[in-house]
Amino acid sequence: MAPPQIGDSIPDVTLYENTPNEAISLKELCAGKKVIIFGVPGAFTPTCSKDHLPSFLAQYDAIKLKEVAEIICVSVNDPFVMAAWGESYPTTGKIRMLADTNMELTRALDIVLDTGGKLSGPRCERFAAIIVDGKFTYFKRAISDGGNSCTYAPDILSSL
To answer: What are the positions of the active site (predicted)?
Structure first.
């Protein structure tokens, strides 16, 4: 398995919003739209909370001017944690906080991060993607594509 290439379809995986009962089909969510998805190793972790998530909040208006229908933050956490993290920032109505509880997306994109047990087991690598009509038009991983900044909002904005 390899990370997605430009032109590949978004995988048909289930993510969760707010509670384990609110299942979201990522494929359906991305159908017929321009969507940004960014992934972080963990909710409430320092870099994710101080830099990554705030970069998208700061650029929200500029991103929406580029006709982006959804901005989605994903992490390998439970949906309650993702909801609480979103509530601690002004994400409501701006960024959907989705949990990859079962690592379906993380595995499908081949971006499992071995944290050596430091974050309660494997997590998602820091990444960012632009999806247009269900297909990848941009995909960057912090580990292999130039560090964290290539997954932050300014780099995404310049690629829209």
So the answer is: 48
- Token pair of 98 as six digits: 């989705």
73 is catalytic: no
Give pLDDT tens digits for 86-106. 999 888 899 999 999 999 999
- Contact criterion met (CB below 8 Å) for 156 and 36: yes
Task: Kindly name the residue from 48, 73, 124, 150 that is annotated as catalytic.
Answer: 48
pTM exceeds 0.85, yes or no: yes
3-state SS assignment for residue 136:
strand
Please check whether residue 4 lies inside any domain of the structure: no
Handedness of CA 120, 14, 44, 107 (dihedral sign): positive
- Give the CATH number for residue 35: 3.40.30.10
> How does pLDDT run across 41-75, given as a tens digit for each residue?
878 876 777 778 999 999 999 999 999 999 999 99
The answer to whether position 45 is within a domain reads yes
